User: Fold these one by one.
Assistant:
Number 1:
Amino acid sequence: STKKPLVIVTRKLPEIIETRMMELYDCRLNLDDHAWSQDELLAAVKEADVLVPTVTDRIDRQIIEAAGPQLKLIASFGTGVDHIDFQACKAKGIMVTNTPDVLTEDTADMTMALILAVPRRLAEGERLVRTGKWQGWSPTGMLGHRIWGKRLGIIGMGRIGTAVARRAKGFGLSIHYHNRNRVHEGLEEELEATYWSSLDQMIAHMDILSINCPHTPATYHLLNSRRLGLMKPHAYIVNTSRGEVIDETALLKALQNRDIAGAGLDVFESEPKINPKLLKLENAVLLPHMGSATIEGRVAMGEKVIINIRTVMDGHNPPDRVIDMMF
Ligand code: 8YV
């Protein structure tokens, strides 16, 4: 019988996925689930036929150039591929796949949770109860801002942005979006969505902004201090995409100065490191990159990874081949 391909998985995955992978492949797993160092990644790509990294692995040019000639596929466990140097992979003929679609709805749910949590001060209220400081109900206690009737501006109207829009519409928000391309007419009609070709113009008119675009060279610090300065002082921003899309230092300043009303962040520029000054802000809801963290979603992501590996190993085009990084 022919030798099974060596599949190296950088992080602990759901057990059902690991079991299946071990049945199919010569599989090396990361049993203690620590995030690998550059040296551990270098050692892995020297041997692996298939590498299964996650968002916590920086698959940069140095790693790709050190890869052995046997490395065929990087089957990333996740949708965002900004941690992979795609050009370097392309130059070496290494295929890249990701796991889109299966985490769209979960991430949109978490985005909606932040859209509700920040203006309604959910986390602050919870802290008040937990710290024993709640004095009882009062007509003016814990007042936030209502969200229904307000304008939501979605930056990046792809799969997740669209799923956020559907939810937000149900909560009575009006939907606005900025995207490189206008979405099709039927979708705009369904969502009663307004397209803004100018991001600056949209930002200036929104009550809540939601970041749902990928992190690419074109979206790095898309929300810089100038653009944050265009936001209305009572406006909120939520980010379930990538920390790098917002200039975090500029955001911190805007929040500290109350130039904007609040932020809900599931992702950070140097996660898991968090600027300690962010932790001091009552008007920020901070989550540990858990937008897609459901048991069902993780299993579905693992199934996608397996299908991608299998199709490539069988000599076919995988369903989730990443064609270009510049989306
Ligand atoms: C995952 C994510 O936690 O898929 C993404 O792009 O950011 C998250 O859903 C991560 O990718 C796992 O690798």
Number 2:
Amino acid sequence: MPTSKTKKTQQASTSRTRSRATSDSTHEERGNGGELHQRAGGDSPPMTTAQGARVEDDQNSLRAGDRGPTLVADHVFREKIFHFDHERIPERVVHARGYGAHGVFECLESLADITRASVFAKAGKKTETFVRFSTVAGNLGSFDLARDVRGFATKFYTDEGNWDLVGNNIPVFFIQDALKFPDLVHAVKEEPDRGFPQAQSAHDTFWDFVGLMPEATHMTLWQMSDRAIPRSFRMMEGFGVHTFRFVNAEGKSSFVKFHWKPVLGMQSVVWNEAVKINGADPDFHRRDLFDAISAGDFPQWELGVQVFDDAFADSFDFDILDATKIVPEEVVPVRVVGTMTLNRVVDSVFAEIEQVAFMTQNVPPGIDFTNDPLLQGRNFSYLDTQLKRLGSTNFSQLPVNAPKCPVAHFQRDGHMQVSTQPGRTAYEPNSFTGADRGPRESGTDGHVPFPAEVDGTMRRIRAESFSDHYSQARQFWISQTDVEKEHIVAAYTFELGKCEIPAIRERVVANLRNVDEALATDVADGLGMPLPAASEPAAPVVETESSPALSLLGNAKETFEGRKLGLLLGEGADAAAVKRLTKAVDKAGGTVEVVAIAVGGAILSDGSTLPAKQAVAGGPSVLYDAVAIIAGSEGGTALADEPPARDFLTDAFAHYKVIGLAGATDALVDAAGLTGKLDDACLPVGTAKDCTAYVSRIAAPRKWDRDLSA
Ligand code: HDE
């Protein structure tokens, strides 16, 4: 609030501006492009320089003469442009494009028997969090629906220091050793001699790397599945990926894998839809998260843990230190121990989402590392990257990074030190007392590293226990539904089809033969190439049971909650039907977005005008989970004559969506080429009974067995 003194100054300057505008109107008009700006008053705070000096004129730089050169003496201009020139910081080398929100984690049961981490101390305990979701390969300005892994990084501001669980929405990784990370990233990013493709793995260098590194095969199956094109951040799982340790107060360690399960259930889009969403709304995921939280529809995840001991770990066919492997949920069930609710959007994308610094090495007492070589490498990398991006060792003082518990140490000074560090000593031991003494170690408490025995000969080596690259890839494949398998085949075919070098395609398909013959054959057929000889696996492929938990569609939740219906209206649409449908969808927890030929809306049967959120040209059906079209009672030709309205219906049909129809829609159905093809997922929505049946159908899966043949 401005003080009364400032208010007075504002009034004075307003009247001065006014009188100048009248007395010297030529000067004002030339300076302001003919518009007179309100220079002060209202609730606006007074504009100042960064040094706090009041700015008198923010429209004109200081000149010698009306048309003369700008003067170096213009420190206001110099300061403004100086700051602008330095606005950008380096984007993240990976996971550059992301979006985040604040939330709260609530512990559901005490885990004190297995971990002394205070965040899990007792049921009902709440800890503030900040989450950043991201794509991996694309640059900051890339589109949201790239086929890519999604980052799912959570900062828990615990009362014993920050815990960063820096995970992904896929539980395995491409490589086993952090030394290969720069190669992987260089392979997937734009090719260095041409600067494209952007945010795509569908190119030669990525698949060349994958073909030559069979350990990546398992992850590529996940990446080619619909998990890599999620419908929403709110509808995807998250995984800590590595095996971590829980350590309890007695110092006993257990292994643990972390899982986030979305309360809204998992959902993805189909590839053709993803491609079109990227054009229609490149910000689809960030907008979705922002809109949901702003509307009070707070997304939630359950935090689950898989906990097992050394003996159990030894019983697995694979090495729990190998990040290309999962622990099947059927073998070690996921125990839900907490929920996280995202309940606050950021105030500043830059200050929070861009400046948040996640680091795998941020663990509180009770959570510890294992010797997973990928995790060990990450513990090096994340500190370095923050210094590069944020430019100062004091990045942990930025509000989004600062712990919410007391911080006291002898680390001093440095660029952009914002805390005044009091006291006479900055070293220890010291023999001072009182405020001059400074902080002291506890001697008993704190993060005591788990005393794991370490022994061995120093060598650059990959453990023999890491050599099976195909058994779990096969397990993932056999755990998918037929529809999911078709999508995986189509994705490999698309991606490899973008590779220009035939040998690269062949090598990948040769590796896929070790996963499944049908998969390899279908991909080879799709590419129109002969099936190459299978590559030689480094370890025999072990036949495993399928793991139903690995299927996305098999675990889809039957609900329309958090989903969006696109309601395309023609002129004269039945007002009662529109009202009924909107109410029913709202009751089901979804939202309705009205689409019309013009954004001004449609005139309904009762003469009222319902404004649209989108004109159909800007609101294609790919933006919605289900669609309904309510035309007027006569003709309906207006919609049929609009190419975007035809596409709205054609695409919804091709993307297996449930379609509601009311009013005279025959002409549109015909124009969309669908006469005689509408199936049992194309339902009437005109009457109350129709509406009920339709709303219960949109909660169920898409019409996956739809006949799309001509
Ligand atoms: Fe990262 N990773 N990573 N990563 N990672 C980064 O840190 C790295 C890996 C993940 O929203 C960087 O702040 C190495 C696995 C997420 O701010 C960098 C290795 C997993 C994010 C880095 C890996 C991840 C990052 C770039 C191989 C899933 C975004 C910017 C050993 C468990 C965090 C930054 C955010 C970001 C290094 C592999 C997840 C360079 C060396 C495995 C979600 O430090």
